[in-house]
Automatic annotation (TrEMBL):
Cellular component annotations (GO), alphabetically ordered: extracellular space
Residue ranges of domain Alpha-2-macroglobulin in the record: 843-933
Protein name listed in UniProt: TonB-dependent receptor plug domain-containing protein
Database matches in PANTHER family: CD109 ANTIGEN, MACROGLOBULIN / COMPLEMENT
A Pfam short name: A2M
GO molecular function: endopeptidase inhibitor activity
SMART domains: A2M, Thiol-ester_cl
InterPro entries from the UniProt entry: A-macroglobulin_rcpt-bd_sf, A2M/Complement_sys, Alpha-macroglob_thiol-ester_cl, Alpha-macroglobulin_TED, Macroglobln_a2, Plug_dom, Plug_dom_sf, Terpenoid_cyclase/PrenylTrfase
Region forming the signal peptide: 1-22
Keyword set, alphabetical order: Receptor, Signal, Thioester bond
Length: 1504
């Protein structure tokens, strides 16, 4: 008897078929671009960043469907990847977010966004967005300051442009202001000015005639409505270090033919330098003059003459010297100049002789114009209509008939045809917490509505103006910067509608910048093969067989095991029972096979998994060679061809024509309208073109529509499953033009339709842009609306015998998980009144998906925060036609009574601040106010004016005195009582402890007595802890925790807190000890560290300290070793491991060594070659490599045997153990033991360590060699006792020595004992007995102290430590410090709004080069570092990068030359009156943090 078994897959879940690539996808047609719109560019620790990721096809900027995932890396100020995210791309976009932790270091972060497909090209094609994270005080006056000209010299007159607005967005007219010009930190000129009717001013001043520095500053201060504000910028001084390049238009210069000569000047830091000058011939005769227009770019008319050569000399900036040679002219050739006349683009062609050429114009690799031209000697004009080209950069090439180029010109076309976005608020003036409604419209060039997909951010304008963001916006990136070589200065400038010089400057940009649409990685060009597919691919293959191993053709269903709400996928096996599924997301799957045939047997069928692997780079074999028709990265311009239809053997016959029923007239078409994802009837509908097909036994939607619906083109799918349907006529092999399918209101895929055609009753096709806009951006290629019977994917019916058991198998699919998408929280306020005003968010609204409808309209609503300010709404997006657009507007929120208070971002115990409270009466009536301030415990208030009579439309300032007396993180409440009620304002305040945290760690594993001094203890800060470690893993975790307190960022530093967790997990595993909490903590550290470490892989393979190219060999070997050990506990990317091994093997030099990258391989020359080479060999042997590096091992062994280095001998002893060379190991141990007994061996380090770190690293390597043989336990025990004495609060010296010691600790603990030790130990502190745990701090005293540890019996002693922690105003300097720090303020007094110069000098006291170094500089509260200047320090290479930890500015340098003295100047802005003391500053080598040199904290008195 037959039974009907219903297999319920899941309500409304779709069954997807396996995509197979029948034809190769061509990269040139599917190149992608990515752009991020962020909710803000300036954040405070603890805030959350949101962004929308636009992923588009580079050719037409339409939503791209090649890549299904997009990656976002959040890069720290140090250059390390804090987090790597990946999101699913749908409808051409994705949404993402990142939370900045409260303790996140301040600085410049970078968002780097790309698809895997984009990694076939060089990193310049990747989108980067800088994000500033700082605690700042936002200005209360909106000011801008700029120098239009970028280059001045001695005696030059400088012009600066200034503007100011109030928080109501009104220009501040006729207002006086003061300015100060400082050179090298000293004021040389002061003056006043008054703003004009637009709130603007042009400030003119002259630089000194004698000028020896480019350190110039202009500072402007104003006092507007009791708000003292200031703005400052560096004066662009250029001192005779200018790089000037000349570039003839079209790239050709021909004798006797006039042309335009473009030029570009940059200073020593690569920044634009505006110049003036003359051109002289070889007789000294002036033949031309030139002057920059903008950003160092300009052009002049020039006619070279036969037999002459030319030079240029600069006349400005003043003092500029040198001669610059112009390009040599040719005797024959073609000169191409471009000019605009009316709406046409005219090409003025001049040839030295008659010739036949082609003029071809392309935009983004697609030819839009091509003409054969018969050139005669002389001038000829060819006109081209720009309307025939899409918006963007067009490349025009004059070439011979054999395609040899003669001249080329790039031109930007169609700026006016960008998407026009308009935002209209329902009113201009709102109140705090009031509802705001914005009407958004999107139109084309002629005002026609364009449906568009937008993102919208609404931010407080104060911090937005402070940020002064000049990075790429959606227009400049998609249309300009992404296709130009090098950095484009202020790219958004070229799209400013109110900037009169923007069009001319944009054309100069085209003349002076290199263009390349494709910029393939070198390996792609070398091998003519892509490196990456569109997405990482997981391959899972298998076979379905019966008990006799005969194939069972089946349908195999893939059910998610742990991830809910996911689609169930299905694939049919071939006749041999084999299947191969790709594209599975990470999860545990149950595979269920349903046989196609009639089943009579009860049991016996099985699913056998044959292959289960993850290909991180995707499978590139199915993609066309990228350089098939390209030369040097440029395509030949072959136009896209539609793919010819191909027969599909599995395709069932197409239904006959008479089965289709069409509407009889256009009138019938007007009865149908799309609403959401369903079809409704409407009496009238304009413009929508719809075709409807009724089906009874249709087998293929695609082929069934072929030829029956106008405008539909059918081509075979490149994925081999069904066909591509194109409604607009634009076709590509990518399949990205396929329409959106809707089944009974649910979006589905064409593959899903193919297996369920029996359910379809009719198909409706919509082609009109306005109609399909209702479906969102997925409908840019049209919509196919399908009506059918039954619910999609609800049931599958199979005939089986009553006792048949479905065969199943379980499979774990590895890979990178999708990052969860967080939603922006926008509060809803039901009343304008509130008991407490505490909502002062910088971003008050973020909507990543604003879809305008067929009328180009959308409406959004949200609520204001509590701030009295102006808000800025910024919208960006792309129209359905691929045109990008953006706009921004401002509106005002103002309360009847505004209360504004400034609080320093941080205070230190002992600081006394005068908090300025400005109260504004925004009504015409006078009112009396009572002011109350409620402080948290730990602060105390002074006397202040508590009652104010405030006139109508007036303002008043009160200074509220507060003193910080204890460490806290709390709120201050301000209450203003008025006749109509009261305003309660709540603002956060942070107070840190006085002085710098200092500590002493006394550690050993044997009886010992210490004398240690304590000096300058801050009262109440002393804490003491005694620890006795009966299990060594506790000591290891404590050391790791202590290391996490120090700033870190690079690969090696991250490894220091990651690698030891492997040792702990191995120890727990090997000893069988159960400690779930410890294991969980170690796994958490390990997984977090792995995700960070893998992000340091460079695009060239291998690893580098910050992930930059070129990779570093020794560091890569370290990574290979670390990742190999990780594999025992977590999943490690096998593709990354293979690439790492390949990179290292590729660096062998053929003579037993490795080719080391010159600039970084020795940690900047601090490590000898033999040390780096030996370390690489060791790391590769520990990672399991053997015979493939045998020559390198033998060479390193020979070198070590001849050396007198304890380090090299010990490292090679460990390598011999891993190479399974016991005789080599034995000989090396003998040499080590003899050397240690006789004290004749030299020390060594792979990171250039010195002092205690060098001692520990050398001993740790020796210990790791000894622990490999149990016969060495006694000697090892003595060595461990020596090492334990070196422990400090930072661990065991530098990061490398600490990691090695932790590895040795766990190995030693595993070797000596598998049981918990019990020791009988006595401890005394200043003759008082103490026990493990917290120690009474009163037992300690200023001056000398004594700590003693003794064994009570013969049980021995385990490791122990006494840690004394306290604060001191100035810790002692380390005698071993090799860097010395000096800090000073230019003045100890300042007025609010002034700048105070902080001078920092760091000197290398040795005659040797030093590796990475760190300076921590305490900045007094009340003063603030200016974000633009901190960024400028990086751009001018004064520092490598910076971070900010509360009131510490942390500066990093990669290296120091022998005796080098680095000087860094900061102009700190005086913000809030009061008296403040900064914390002590220090400097140290990155790898030896225990050796610090200190400077006392700086004092400042800021007055009104």
């Amino acid at each position: 008897m037959k039974y009907l078994i219903n297999i319920c897959c899941c309500l409304l879940l779709c069954i997807q078929s396996l995509p197979l690539y029948a034809q190769q996808v061509d990269y040139k047609n599917t190149k992608e671009k990515v752009y991020l719109h962020t909710s803000h560019v300036f954040f405070t620790p603890g805030e959350e960043l949101f962004y929308k990721i636009y992923v588009v096809n580079a050719q037409d900027l339409q939503p791209n469907r090649i890549s299904k995932r997009v990656f976002v890396e959040v890069i720290s100020p140090a250059g390390s990847v804090v987090e790597k995210q990946q999101y699913e791309v749908a409808e051409g976009y994705a949404q993402g977010s990142f939370v900045f932790g409260k303790d996140a270091p301040g600085g410049i972060y970078t968002l780097r966004a790309y698809t895997l497909w984009m990694r076939n090209e060089k990193p310049r094609t990747v989108f980067n967005r800088e994000i500033t994270l700082l605690k700042v005080i936002s200005p209360r006056v909106l000011m801008k300051l700029d120098f239009p000209r970028k280059g001045y010299g001695p005696g030059d007159e400088v012009a600066a442009e200034y503007s100011m607005k109030n928080l109501q967005q009104q220009p501040i007219v006729g207002f006086p202001a003061q300015y100060t010009v400082s050179i090298d930190g000293k004021a040389v000129f002061t003056g006043t000015f008054t703003t004009d009717t637009a709130g603007k001013a042009r400030i003119l001043f002259r630089l000194p005639e004698k000028l020896y520095t480019n350190d110039g500053l202009l500072n402007i201060t104003v006092d507007y409505q009791h708000n003292k504000e200031a703005i400052s910028r560096s004066i662009p001084i250029t001192l005779n270090k200018i790089d000037l390049q000349f570039m003839p238009e079209g790239g050709t210069l021909v004798n006797g033919i006039a042309t335009n000569m473009a030029f570009k000047a940059i200073n020593e830091y690569g920044k634009p330098a505006d110049v003036k000058g003359t051109v002289l011939d070889d007789q000294g005769k002036q033949v031309a003059t030139f002057e920059s227009l903008r950003f160092g770019m300009g052009a002049f008319r020039f006619t070279p003459q036969p037999g002459h050569h030319y030079i240029a000399r600069l006349s400005a900036p003043a003092g500029a010297r040198g001669e610059y040679v112009l390009p040599a002219a040719a005797t024959n050739g073609v000169v191409m100049n471009v000019r605009r006349k009316d709406s046409l683009l005219q090409f003025v062609l001049q040839a030295s002789q008659p010739m036949t050429v082609t003029l071809e114009g392309k935009t983004r690799n697609v030819t839009h114009y091509k003409q054969v031209i018969q050139l005669q000697a002389g001038e000829q004009v060819v006109s081209v209509n720009p309307a025939d080209f899409p918006v963007g950069i067009a490349v025009f090439t004059i070439a011979q008939l054999n395609n040899i180029p003669l001249a080329e010109r790039i031109v930007f076309l169609g700026a006016s045809r960008c998407l026009q976005v308009k935002i209209t608020p329902d009113k201009q003036l709102y109140k705090p917490r009031e509802k705001v409604t914005l009407d958004i419209s999107t139109t084309g060039e002629k005002g026609m509505p364009i449906p568009a997909n937008l993102s919208l951010a609404v931010v407080d304008d104060k911090k937005w103006v402070l940020a002064d963001d000049r990075q790429d916006n959606i227009l400049s990136w998609l249309l300009l910067s992404s296709e130009l070589h090098g950095k484009t200065e202020e790219p958004s400038f070229y799209f400013k509608q109110d900037e009169p010089t923007a069009p001319a400057a944009q054309d100069l940009l085209m003349l002076t910048n290199g263009y390349r649409y494709f910029d393939y990685e070198d390996a792609v060009i070398r091998n003519n093969q892509l490196l990456h597919g569109p997405d990482a691919v997981h391959v899972l293959s298998g076979i379905v067989m019966d008990k006799n191993e005969r194939p069972v053709p089946s349908k195999v269903y893939f059910l998610h095991g742990t991830v809910p709400g996911q689609k169930i996928r299905m694939i049919e096996t071939d006749e041999a029972g084999r299947f191969k599924m790709t594209g599975l997301t990470p999860d545990r799957y149950m595979l269920v096979a349903v046989p196609k045939r009639k089943v009579r047997e009860k049991t016996g069928d099985v699913i056998r998994i044959l292959e289960n692997k993850f290909i991180a780079g995707g499978d590139v074999s199915k993609f066309a060679a990228p350089l098939t028709d390209t030369v040097a990265g440029y395509t030949t311009g072959q136009e896209e061809q539609a793919l010819p239809p191909q027969s599909n053997p599995s395709q069932k016959p197409v239904a006959p024509k008479e089965m289709f029923m069409f509407p009889e007239s256009d009138k019938a078409l007007q009865e149908v309208v799309v609403t959401g994802y369903s079809i409704a009837q409407k009496k009238s509908m304009t413009s929508a073109i719809v075709s409807t097909v009724s089906m009874e036994r249709l087998q293929s939607v695609s082929t069934g529509l072929q030829g029956f619906v106008a405008g539909i083109a059918i081509t075979p799918n490149t994925q081999g499953n069904d066909y591509n349907v194109t409604l607009r006529g634009a076709r590509s092999a990518s399949g990205s033009n396929e329409p959106l399918y809707i089944y009974n209101g649910v979006p589905v895929t064409s593959a899903e339709i193919a297996g369920n055609l029996g359910l379809i009753s009719s198909v409706t096709v919509l082609k009109d842009a306005a109609a399909v806009a209702l479906y969102g951006s997925r409908a840019v290629n049209g919509v196919v609306v399908i009506n059918g019977v039954g619910t999609w994917g609800e049931y599958r019916k199979v005939n089986l015998s009553p006792n048949y058991n479905l065969p199943f198998a379980m499979a774990d699919v590895q890979g990178e998980a999708i990052t969860p998408v967080r939603r922006f929280y926008a509060p809803v306020y039901t009343s304008l009144k509130t008991k407490e005003r505490n909502d002062f968010r910088e971003t008050i609204y973020w909507n990543p998906v604003v879809q305008t409808d067929r009328h180009g309209k959308a409406v959004v609503s949200f609520y204001n925060s509590d701030a009295t300010t102006s808000f800025r709404a910024i919208a960006e997006g792309i129209g359905y036609n691929g045109q990008p657009g953006r706009t921004e507007i401002a509106y005002v929120s103002k309360a009847p009574v505004g209360v504004d208070v400034k609080i320093p971002p941080y205070l230190t115990v002992g600081d006394k601040a005068l908090l300025p409270m400005v109260i504004s009466n925004n009504t015409p009536d006078e009112m009396e106010l009572d002011i109350t301030m409620v402080l948290p415990k730990g602060m105390k208030a002074g006397n202040y004016e508590s009652r104010v009579l405030l006139p109508g439309n007036g303002s008043y300032k009160i200074l509220l005195p507060v003193e910080a007396i204890a460490r806290l993180e709390d709120d201050i409440h301000f209450v203003v009582q008025m006749p109509q009620g009261q305003e309660n304002i709540t603002l956060p305040v942070t107070v840190s402890e006085k002085g710098f945290p200092a500590s002493i760690c006394l550690s050993a594993a044997a009886p010992e007595s210490w004398n240690f001094p304590l000096k300058n203890i801050v009262p109440g800060s002393l804490r003491t802890e005694l620890s006795l470690y009966e299990e060594l893993e506790g000591l290891t975790m404590e050391v790791i925790a202590s290391m996490l307190r120090e700033p870190y960022g690079c690969f090696e530093q991250t490894s220091s807190t990651t690698y030891p967790n492997i040792f702990i997990l191995k120890y727990l595993q090997q000893t069988g000890k159960l400690n779930p909490a410890l294991k969980k903590k170690a796994m958490n550290y390990l997984e977090r560290g792995y995700n960070r470490l893998r992000s340091f892989e460079t695009s060239a393979g291998g690893f580098e300290w910050f992930g930059h190219v070129p990779p570093q060999e020794a560091l890569t070997a370290y990574g290979l070793m670390e990742f190999t050990d990780m594999k025992e506990f977590i999943a490690v990317d096998e593709g990354m491991m293979a690439r790492t091994k390949k990179f290292l093997l590729g660096r062998r030099n053929g003579t037993g060594g490795f080719r080391l990258e010159a600039s970084k391989s020795h940690q900047l020359h601090a490590v000898p070659y033999s040390v780096a080479n030996t370390y690489i060999v060791y790391a590769m042997t520990k990672a399991g490599m053997g015979l493939e590096i045998l020559p390198e091992y033998e060479a390193a062994l020979k070198t070590a045997m001849k050396s007198n280095s304890a380090w090299e001998l010990a490292v090679m002893a460990n390598a011999a153990y891993y190479m399974k060379r016991p005789e080599d190991y034995r000989q090396l141990i003998i040499l080590l033991q003899q050397g240690y007994r006789n004290n004749t061996l030299d020390k060594g380090s792979v990171v250039g360590a010195s002092g205690a770190s060098l001692d520990v690293e050398t001993m740790a390597w020796y210990g790791l060699a000894l622990v490999k043989d149990n016969n060495n336990i006694v000697e090892l025990s003595h060595l461990m006792q020596k090492i334990m004495k070196y422990r400090t609060v930072y661990g065991f010296g530098a990061t490398q020595s600490t990691v090695l010691t932790l590895e040795l600790l766990t190995a030693y603990a595993n070797a000596v004992s598998r049981a918990k030790a019990s020791y009988s130990t006595a401890f005394t502190l200043n003759q008082s007995q103490v026990s493990p745990g917290p120690v009474d701090a009163t037992l300690l005293k200023e001056g000398e102290n004594v700590f003693t540890a003794t064994a009570k019996d013969s049980s021995g002693m385990g490791p122990y430590s006494l840690e004394v922690m306290y604060n001191t105003l100035l810790p002692d300097n380390s005698a071993a410090a090799v860097l010395k720090l000096q800090t000073a303020l230019s003045s100890t007094q300042a007025k609010v709004g002034e700048t105070v110069r902080m001078n920092m000098q760091v000197k290398n006291e040795t005659n040797k080069g030093l590796p990475m170094s760190v300076a921590k500089i305490g900045i007094p509260a009340g003063l603030s570092a200016q974000p633009w200047q901190l960024k400028e320090l990086i751009e001018t290479k004064k520092i490598t990068h910076y971070e900010i930890f509360d009131n510490y500015l942390v500066l990093y340098w990669l290296d120091f030359a022998p005796g080098e003295n680095k000087i860094v100047n900061l102009d700190l802005k005086a913000e809030i009156p009061g008296t403040y003391k900064g914390k002590a500053g220090n400097v140290y080598l990155y790898y030896t943090p225990e050796h610090k040199h200190w400077n006392a904290g700086l004092d400042i008195d800021i007055r009104e």
